[in-house]
UniProtKB/TrEMBL annotation:
Subcellular location: Golgi apparatus membrane
Gene Ontology cellular-component terms listed: Golgi membrane
Predominant location category: Golgi
GO MF annotations, alphabetized: glycosyltransferase activity
UniProt keyword terms in alphabetical order: Glycosyltransferase, Transferase
Protein name as catalogued: Uncharacterized protein
Protein topology in the membrane: Single-pass type II membrane protein
Length: 160
């Protein structure tokens, strides 16, 4: 969820807090939200609460909110690691259709985050480097350079 720091966003979050505080028993609030969003996780979360408010207070919030649903804003590295090379080849055809690069690829919870060696550590580090090089290519390509491949930190000129 991307949020602009303005009065509308603050009002939205204040309303969300009011929703959470509307009943002393959070289970009651969760059940209220679950009636509208049967697929939410087994706990009350910010994203579920936001969607609940957008669905139940449409006239108030929908004119002020853009809800992106054409592509993934955020994906876990293990779900994307095998797609990075394909994204590089198909850059000109990115259509924001859910089959193209996410805005954010996160590594939360991986071995690197905990700074401890595990069986995933080497793979996690390798994929983190590849993801960094992929993101770096998006910037340096406009300057006429790119990484030789996603597994290499070597930068080479683009021959056009």
């Amino acid at each position: 969820m991307f949020v602009r720091n303005d009065d509308i966003s603050r009002e939205f979050f204040d309303t969300m807090v009011d929703l959470w505080d509307s009943h002393p028993n959070q289970t009651e609030v969760y059940l209220k939200v679950k009636k509208v969003l049967p697929g939410i996780p087994g706990y009350l979360c910010d994203q579920g609460s936001a969607i609940y408010m957008l669905m139940t207070q449409k006239d108030r919030w929908l004119p002020r909110v853009y809800l992106e649903e054409r592509y993934h804003i955020n994906r876990y590295w293990k779900d994307e690691k095998d797609n990075l090379d394909n994204y590089m080849e198909e850059r000109e055809t990115w259509r924001n259709d859910g089959n193209h690069p996410p805005f954010i690829m996160h590594f939360c919870g991986c071995a690197l985050c905990y700074m401890k060696y595990s069986e995933d550590f080497d793979e996690c580090q390798r994929q983190h480097d590849r993801a960094f090089n992929f993101a770096n290519n998006q910037i340096i390509r406009d300057l006429g350079f790119m990484h030789r491949n996603l597994s290499s930190s070597e930068v080479v000129p683009i021959i056009r």
